[in-house]
Design brief:
Blueprint (H helix, E strand, L loop, with lengths): L9 H10 L3 E3 H11 L4 H5 L9 H15 L3 E3 L4 E4 L1 H5 L2 H5 L1 H12 L12 H18 L3 H14 L2 E6 L10 E7 L2 E10 L4 E2 L1 H11 L5 E6 L2 E2 L1 H7 L7 E4 L1 H11 L15 H5 L2
Parallel strand pairs: 6-8, 7-9, 8-10
Antiparallel strand pairs: 1-3, 2-3, 4-5, 5-6
Helix pairs in contact: 1-2, 10-11
């Protein structure tokens, strides 16, 4: 069965944001939209090309890009997406028109008409591919180099006593650290998976089994993504919760921490004639 077109997600995105009070993280949005569109776990795990990104997250990113260009969505530097006042008021018919409106705007600004394929908008494409390029680079790292990168990410994020254990046959535990929050501190075990594709629930269960009685919290960091069952297992009632950082979230972390990612700001200069004539 062919995967739904990216504009199929326009209305579910808007409706899910309205239901959540007008804003959501990307993970929250993916869960809500997948439920509204009745996507199967197999569809959610399907890779875009050779990966590491899933087809679902790829097309949802394009949907967000179009909705933002159409004035329905906005996003913060922290990766939280929110409805604009116009987005709150749009009818379903108006939401459906956004795709053609955005492409018409592209035609006005370019001599050639945009391709009818998903990647027709070059500015949106560049916003998507920096993460894909970064993930491919991370996948090319040696396993121990990726472990050291995760170690640095944790240190930069406020962890202390972060150590890479380098042990094998230890339930997937790659290192330890202590997270201090004001007067409290938590002993954390982490696993770093340089992985292309989906991390399943069995990985989460095995990791939890290895950490029981040895730490307060568990953390799994991967370049791939987590299946729906893995996310459910991570927060299963009655079991110690395990935090999950997928490839998309890892890219945002590296960007925020300026580790391997440079963000360039282009200077904009304009003339203030009012102040000149008031001298």
């Amino acid at each position: 069965m062919p995967f739904p077109s990216f504009d199929t997600f326009f209305i579910p995105i808007i409706h899910s944001l309205r239901a959540s009070g007008g804003s959501a993280t990307i993970d929250e949005m993916e869960e809500a939209v997948a439920a509204k569109t009745a996507l199967t776990d197999a569809q959610r795990s399907q890779l875009h090309g050779d990966g590491p990104r899933t087809e679902f997250s790829y097309r949802l990113a394009w949907a967000r890009t179009y909705l933002k260009k159409g004035g329905a969505l906005d996003n913060s530097e922290k990766g939280v997406w929110r409805l604009t006042p116009s987005g709150f008021q749009m009818s379903d018919a108006q939401i459906k028109e956004i795709k053609s409106q955005v492409r018409q705007q592209a035609k006005v600004g370019q001599s050639e008409s945009p391709d009818e394929q998903i990647d027709g908008d070059s500015s949106a494409e560049s916003a998507l591919t920096w993460k894909e390029h970064l993930l491919e680079t991370l996948l090319s790292l040696a396993p121990d180099a990726f472990e050291r990168l995760c170690q640095r990410v944790l240190r930069e994020s406020g962890f202390v006593k972060v150590e890479v254990t380098g042990k094998t046959g230890d339930g997937g535990i790659d290192g330890t650290g202590v997270l201090r929050l004001n007067l409290l501190s938590f002993h954390v075990l982490f696993q770093s998976k340089r992985y292309r594709g989906s991390v399943g629930s069995s990985i989460v269960r095995d990791f939890r089994g290895a950490m029981v009685g040895r730490a307060d919290k568990g953390l799994i960091i991967t370049t791939g993504n987590f299946t729906t069952e893995a996310r459910r297992e991570a927060t299963r009632d009655g079991a110690p919760a395990i935090d999950l950082v997928d490839g998309d979230a890892l890219c945002e972390l590296l960007k925020d921490l300026k580790i391997g990612v440079k963000v360039e700001t282009i200077e904009s200069v304009s003339i203030d004639t009012t102040s000149l004539f008031s001298i």
